[in-house]
Design brief:
Keywords: Cell membrane, Cell projection, Cilium, Cilium biogenesis/degradation, Membrane, Transmembrane, Transmembrane helix. By secondary structure, this protein is an all-alpha fold. The chain is built from four helices and no strands. It has helices at about 5-35, 40-70, 75-95, 105-150.
Amino acid sequence: CEILSSLPLQMSLYFNVYFFPLWWLITVAILYLKYPVLSDYYKFILVTIMILVSLTELIRLYLGYVGNLLEKVPELAGFWLLTLLPQLPIILFLLFNEGLKIHSLERAMHIIFAIFLSFQVLVAFFTLRRMVNTLASRFRLTEFHCLEEQCPVPG
């Protein structure tokens, strides 16, 4: 029995669990400070982004832990999709949109978060691919053994 879970992915998830509350606190504090100088549509966008990132990150980290440690392909695929589609573009938007009046501490936190997400996208992709290939070959071997038992070869 080969272990399919990824140690680098698990380490990244572990550190991400501790980094996310720090990122959230700093981002909310800086949002509170710069809220009066932002335009109305940026105020709405930032509040919506904070709510979306908070909910998505909790679900994403849970799926990552379950998918990696228990070697479950659907959960790891959900983790990969949640990392790739909503989280990474949102963090890149927060990092590169100059209309948001980005503070230097905020920029540093977004860069670290973007590095976490980029690393997790890459490692989760290769881990997912390895899991799918291994599980597919196990399934084919099991199917082959079942056919072999049902139809014995003459001789």
